[in-house]
Amino acid sequence: MIIYLRCSVVKDIEIKVLLKQAPTNQAADRALLMKGVDVSYYYEGYSRFKTEAL
Question: What is the pTM of this model?
Answer without folding.
Answer: 0.46
